[in-house]
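ok, trying the design again with the full structure, not the truncated one.
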């Protein structure tokens, strides 16, 4: 069932968010939508594609991935999502594009093909921003399922488990999410990172 977008305040600091989990903050939408349209204009994303937003300013214990339809303003899917091992514990605070960093990368991506890998059904991601996330294919940064992404794991450990840089989703819902966004849609990973905001060609245009 589609969930209407709710107007929210943007959480920027490492404190527990009071915002509902079923929609992205309006400030994040305002940040990402111009870049989404630019990626379409650059022929990096297919026209009319869905937009997936991951907000790493929220703690890992909250849903912070949403599949959003810009044409209707509806959220089609909301999910927990893990960040990289070297990006932080409950909060994502460090980001890297470097191979072997075991960290998440920010910015705009386009979704590619699906495949069956060591984590099961997975989705390739191609980073669109030079120096920020363009090593995603080399680093094998993909969407995949993981048993450490669950409310039960978070309740036991106070955070989700962490990946080697991939946005890992719950095993029971990863196929649903992948099937919604595979094949040339847009994904944006947001974080509280002034260096990204200063250098991104998509959000500074």
């Amino acid at each position: 069932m589609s969930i209407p977008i709710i107007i929210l305040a943007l959480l920027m600091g490492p404190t527990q968010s009071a915002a509902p989990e079923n929609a992205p903050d309006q400030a994040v939408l305002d940040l990402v939508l111009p870049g989404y349209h630019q990626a379409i204009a650059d022929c990096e994303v297919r026209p009319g594609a869905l937009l997936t937003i991951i907000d790493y300013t929220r703690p890992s214990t909250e849903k912070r991935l949403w599949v959003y339809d810009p044409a209707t303003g509806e959220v089609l899917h909301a999910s927990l999502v893990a960040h990289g091992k070297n990006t932080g514990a409950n909060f994502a605070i460090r980001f890297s594009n470097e191979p072997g960093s075991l960290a998440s990368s920010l910015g705009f991506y386009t979704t590619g093909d699906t495949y069956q890998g060591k984590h099961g059904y997975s989705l390739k991601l191609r980073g669109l921003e030079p120096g920020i996330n363009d090593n995603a294919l080399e680093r094998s940064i993909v969407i995949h399922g993981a048993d450490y992404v669950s409310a039960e794991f978070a309740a036991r450990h106070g955070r989700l488990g962490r990946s080697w840089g991939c946005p890992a989703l719950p095993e029971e819902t990863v196929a649903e999410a992948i099937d919604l966004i595979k094949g040339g849609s847009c994904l944006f990973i947001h974080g509280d990172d002034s260096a990204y905001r200063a250098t991104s060609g998509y959000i500074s245009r």
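Keeping the full-length input from now on. The first strand starts at residue 3 and ends at 4.
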